[in-house]
Amino acid sequence: MSGFVHLHNHSDYSLLDGACRISDYVRKAQEFGMKHVALTDHGNLFGALHFEQACHKAGINPVVGCEVYVAPKNRFHKPVSGPKSYHLVLYAKNETGYKNLMLLTSRGYIDGFYYRPRIDDELLEQYHEGIMASAACLAGEIPRYIVAGDWEKALAKTRYYNDLFGEGNFWLEIMNHGIPEEETVRHGMRRLNKETGIPIIATNDVHFITKDHYKAQDIFICIATGKKLDDKKRLKTESPEFYFKSEEEMQALFPDFPDALENTLRLAEQCNLTIPQSEPMLPHYEIPEAFSDPKDYLHHLAAQGLRERYPLAYKDDAALKKIIEERAEYELQVLCDMGYSGYFLIVWDFIDWARKHDIPVGPGRGSGAGSLVAYALKITDIDPLKYDLLFERFLNPERVSMPDFDIDFCNERRDEVVQYVYDKYGRDNVAGICTFGTLKTRAVLKDVSRVLDIPFSESNEITKLVPGSIQKNDDEGEEESGEKKKIDVKTALALEPKLQEFYQRGGIYKDLFDVAAILEGMNRHVSTHACGQVIGREALTNYVPLIKDQKSQDVVTAYTMDIIEHCGLIKMDFLGLKTLTLLKNCERLIRRRVRDFDLEAIPENDEATYKMLGEGKSDAVFQFESSGMKRILRDAKPSSIEDLIALNALYRPGPMKFIPQFIDSKMGRTRITYPHPDLEDILKPTYGVIVYQEQVMKVAQIIGGFSLGKADILRRAMGKKKEKDMAKMEEEFVKGAQEKGYTEKLAKGVFEMLKPFAGYGFNKSHAAAYSVLAYKTAYCKANYPAEFWSANLGNSMDDTDTLKNYLGHAKSEGIKILPPNVNLSEQTFTVDKGRIIYGLKGIKGMGQAAATAIISARNEKGKFSDILDFLIKVDRKYLNQKVLETAIYSGLFDSIESRNRATLVQNIEKLLAFTQRRQQEEESGQGSLFEEAEEDLETSFQWEEAEDWSKSRYFEMEKEHLGFYVSGHPLDSYRKRWEKTVNLDLGNIPKSSPNKQYSILGMIRNIRSFFTRKNTKMATAELEDFNGSIKLTLFSKVYEKYEPLLTEDAIVGLTGSIEIRNDIPEFKVNEIVKPEELKEIEKKELHIELADMEYTEADMVDLRSFLQERPGPGRLFLHLPGEDGHTIIRASSQISLSLDESSLELIRERSAVISAWKE
């Protein structure tokens, strides 16, 4: 046996080309008994470290290489015709070679990218030490010369590379995939070998693992190129032979080249690389001369910060001061002993810079909020003593790991902080981090279906049949919430009979699932991680390869987040959080009427805030706006930030099952008990329920006598269900408990109690930080609703659906939305006398440049008198026909123009030409007309009058450009009909019984029809009335009957019933009629829904008196939530009252009333 080695292999890191995972190569090499194997992905080292680690684990020598692209002239030249690059395979012999490979591939992306990352001879001459090379495939420069018959160039390039890399470091290369040109190359390579003595290696250009994966790789290329499999002109895999062959198969292919097979081993044996790995090496942080070292400076900053954070303790409370200083000294000792003083200073520095530059910084994220030193340095803004947060959850002295601060910044200004870090530590030392998009289960089925030309309707049905994957806790929960298996193609096929029916059809349907199962999970594209940055002590190319993101043009690491810290680099997460931007803008708006308003000084026990949250009115409140969370808020009636922290921690998969117990205990319906009185202080804030990981740790400390560091290790072992570790620690726990005087029975019972909660429990530090942000947003909403919604609208101008949603919420809360006004509107939404003025940037198609120009002109030259004045004053380079049309359609000039919008649009071209001439005359000094007696522009311009648009045209344009109606509502002509026929106001949808029949009237939107699993057609749509909207469901028989009436923007009457799905009401349609055919309803009932546990006897007396003052024919029904969660309707025969709209609005404003409506 020659000991053949595969030296030319492409994994899925050769993006959308290599259809094989690194683990497949290593497994196959083991199976064939191979002692060496190479990885030579196209132009990159994405997989190098993963590959090296996998090989060493399997006892195989990794040959780390790369098939680079070499530019024909130089890496800066971009040829229009001819070859753009040639292939060349490089192998790292040692650490020096690996570092040079990193430099070469990095420069290829940063300097030479042109379709591919290209290097050139100049770079090879500079960075060739420690590298061997081979002539590559048919795309190599030497093989191309041979195929073209240009022997002199082939010989010259061969000698060049041999001289460059040195004797024994350059190899000729031959292949045999059954491609005719390869035979020509083999003969040429033999001739070169005879003339130069340079040895030959035989390789297989491996792109997939077994021969039967040929079709999968071919389809992979189709996915990359957007082609279909039956496209005869497409790029395709030329042969099924590009797979990982056995030594025997290779020998059969090269009977005349035995030395070429043996040479592969010779080459591989010269490659003895272990990629250097180390703990993160912190960049040098310059400290002021007055301090001896980073530890000294950190102690100084911490001491200074503690005095600022706790002025009263340092002034009057010696006992608290002692607690503070002992905790701080302990933390400082731990982090300095672990070598992290420099890390804290680096983080402190860029956060301090952000604060000094008025960039909002989050209160904390993750376990870092548990550090008192971080709080003192204002890295975090959550008092860990106040909220009983643990330092050991962040940095455990008994389990060495790198601290990890994830920092939230204002979304709009995050990049400024990143730029500061680049400037401080140098562009060569800081970069983003790459991440890979992979072929997910549904996506790969869609992609492969398209390539196989499976009808879209069928591929859509197939992907919908795939069960959803199991959700995990979010990134701060750390452990999985359950043991259910993640859904993949094979699992979905096994679970879903209808998918099996498709598979059993055979042909392309069988191919679909077989190929999708092979390609699933493979890398599809590379991009930049949203928030991660790395900082190196030296230039990053000394540690990792780099690439340039072709979309953003940012330089990022070629290694992913999970392995970057093994390369001597520290990782920082700079996250952009829109909520911080929202709060900053909200504070700015509030200060226009309350000058000294400060969000940091708001009371934590604001009654209006907790009342609003307790009613579930938490739309747009950070972390609490989902329908499920609204329901829990209504049930739990939070009355403190501690309650919000607990609900935030509980509302996620796993711990969600404990929410009823938490609520019942809080509301006094269940007696709160503790396993032992010593645990009351720990569990009392959460009403006896273990909610947080920190509680698990404290229980282990109190009962088991564990240090908090050891308790954190126990928590992790329990969370990850490490049975061996848990068994050992249970012995220690029981023994420690007995030594503290607890019984064995109690100790074992408490240990068993902790097990599920250690997995489900959430990080309190993270929950506390985000709940404080949530409270601030809720406070603004409850006390300054116009400013709150204005800030939200401004925060959502790039998201049409959210903007529309927030506009609806603001209007439903009685806040008036004023249309854009050329003399009042600013860039974003603003508030005037409790009304929201539409922002210029909120007009679709306006653009920031045009909005800025309008405001600048208004500020510098005064308000606009009419559209001509506007066009004279505003810099014309920002105003084109499209921008002006958009402005007119949105009603921007309605306040200054007497002419209708149709006339303005009719004259756009003339207006632009006329005012441009006037501007040019003025600029050239010929504007005498402007200097004479203020000639009226209006008389100089010849208007072409146009007939005004219909109301529906106005509505259409306003809705399109603004997202809401300005000049009225499409239903205005039906208002009387609506009042007489409707018994369901879509702005006040009750939690009604499904048997209750309703009549509604409105405009149809967003129709979507589709086939059911029974192959019958049904539809969903949306109906909008004056006050709100509701989703419609039309099942097959109803849809078939009324399809002609179901058209976009049609105004119709509907009858049907309400169903609640996932806490969201849907209208199940029974009948569709024209508005005039909807039967009139004599409304005789007033229904009032009261908030659970919110009203007092005084509230009820007040409501009764109010109703008795408004007598009329209507009967009263009160809706009271019952213990089983269902609504009880209790009628009163003693009160009859008025049903007019003004009375209804006043009732809705009463204390304890959630909603009120007529039936």
Task: Please outline the helices and strands.
Layout: H1 22-31, E1 36-39, H2 48-58, E2 61-70, E3 86-92, H3 95-110, E4 118-119, H4 121-126, E5 131-134, H5 141-148, H6 151-165, E6 170-174, H7 180-196, E7 200-202, H8 214-225, H9 247-253, H10 258-269, H11 294-309, H12 311-316, H13 318-337, H14 341-356, H15 372-376, E8 406-410, H16 414-425, E9 430-438, H17 441-451, H18 456-465, H19 489-495, H20 497-504, H21 507-519, E10 523-535, E11 546-548, E12 555-560, H22 561-564, E13 570-577, H23 578-590, H24 607-614, H25 627-636, H26 641-650, H27 659-666, H28 680-683, H29 693-704, H30 708-719, H31 723-739, H32 744-760, H33 764-783, H34 785-795, H35 800-812, E14 817-818, E15 830-832, E16 835-837, H36 848-861, H37 867-873, H38 881-889, H39 901-906, H40 908-923, H41 928-931, H42 937-940, H43 951-962, H44 975-981, E17 998-1011, E18 1017-1024, E19 1029-1034, H45 1036-1042, E20 1051-1061, E21 1064-1073, E22 1085-1090, H46 1097-1108, E23 1114-1121, E24 1127-1137, H47 1141-1148, E25 1153-1158
Parallel strand pairs: 1-2, 2-4, 5-6, 6-7, 8-13, 9-12, 14-16, 19-21, 22-23
Antiparallel strand pairs: 2-3, 3-5, 9-10, 10-13, 11-12, 15-16, 17-18, 17-20, 18-19, 20-21, 22-25, 23-24
